[in-house]
Amino acid sequence: MAARELWESLVAAAGGTGGSSGTVVSICVFTAVLCLCLVAGHLLEENKWVNESITALIIGCIIGAIIFLLSKGKNSHILRFDEQLFFIYVLPPIIFNAGFQVKKKQFFHNFLTIMSFGVFGVFISVAIVSTGCYWLFPKVGFGELDAVDYLALGTIFSSTDTVCTLQVINQDETPRLYSLVFGEGVVNDATAVVLFNAIKNLDVDQLKGGVALKVISDFLYLFATSTILGISMGLSTAYVLKTLYFGRHSTDREVALMALMAYLSYMLAELLSLSGILTVFFCGIVMSHYAWHNVTESSRITTRHIFATLSFIAETFIFLYVGMDALDIDKWKTSEASLKTSIGIFGIVILLLLLGRAAFVFPISMLSNKMSGSSERTPITFKHQVVIWWAGLMRGAVSIALAYNQFTFSGVTSDPIHATVITSTIIVVFFTTLVFGFLTRPLISAMLPHRSRGHSTGSNSPKDDLTLPFFSNEDASDSGIVLEQAKRSISMLLERPVHTVHIYWRKFDDRFMRPIFGGPGSH
Fold this sequence. Notes:
Order of helices and strands: HHHHHHHHHHHHHHHHHHHH
Largest sheet: none
Helix content: over 70%
Number of helices: 20
Radius of gyration: 25 Å
């Protein structure tokens, strides 16, 4: 009897008629399913084909199908996908932890290449996907979108999800490859969201050449201001922790302040119409570099685990959420596209994704190899280029959230054209996550065979054994010596730009930044 009442409550919750009681039941069931995903992910840890993202997506679909049957075809979700919920509550802990846990040396050593992949790559991909959709959709009987919608589709399908690949790549064996895939994933999401917001503000009737320049200028403005805001919030937190020394009274306050300041940076960016993703990412980097060293040892351990745990739960939540919402019958009923048209749209999008990735991954990789030279770092091999290309083929919750933002109102649409776009986005996300995700581990195992632990990748920067005249403590009274040192520094900068800038930054950081904001060895 009790079990029957529980099922009836669940059906009422699925049908949206349960009131506050239905909400409690929905959250209870969703939390239980989330726990099930964690257990299943643990049991399948060594599986060659499945990872936790795929597991959560499949379990979400199964639960959605069960609810669909229990509600007799009326509904299939416990909670409706809400892009505001996604962007405000779920995404921030994931992005912040990515910045907080990032290997800063590798990230900034490959900074130019990462930014090329994550920024220029998105623009190239958006151009190819938007143009391809505009040209090919009418050929399969679907061409009733305006120019802004096509540009929005370009950003929606240019946002990547590199989680599956990152779970397989060995960071110790291929640190540069891991850094490139990881860095591009974060910068790609931020770029896609910023570009999407810029495109939404376009006037359809005034799409001229000047508008393209305005989009680019707005993008650069948002990118720069968001980064500056994130760095400022991170430095402010570090300064407060170093000056007031919270740990002498309570370690809880240290942890709470770091968490709240990180979330405040994200929300402040959203309040100022900036990119919260970029802001909280760079806030995490700065906090890990300065603020983390200003707290007690117990707080350091606690923050590492808390932020990583919140990020892990949020990632699992997203894939489970997408899986459960995918079978929402309302959006599928609203779409009037025929099976032939739906298959045509799907095939076009997949083809454009493959071409869009290849159009910038391989050229930028070759350009990076040519610019870096043999003395700076190991080149991006062709196999590594294939892995980078493959890593960006998966689409995830950001794509769905952007699609909902553009083509629905509060997660609901009555327009058949918009409903078709939503269902097509869901199909693409599921196909790329499941099919490409299944093939990721075997592909990387074939492309990147495991090496012994003692093998050096050659990607680590050499020690600071170079002469740095601009930061020398020695007095150089001879103008000739000063001129020679300056020439040598400029020559070194031109030959090895990234490494040279990194060395100068470390000297500047040790001399000026750490005494004020803290850091290793600053006490």
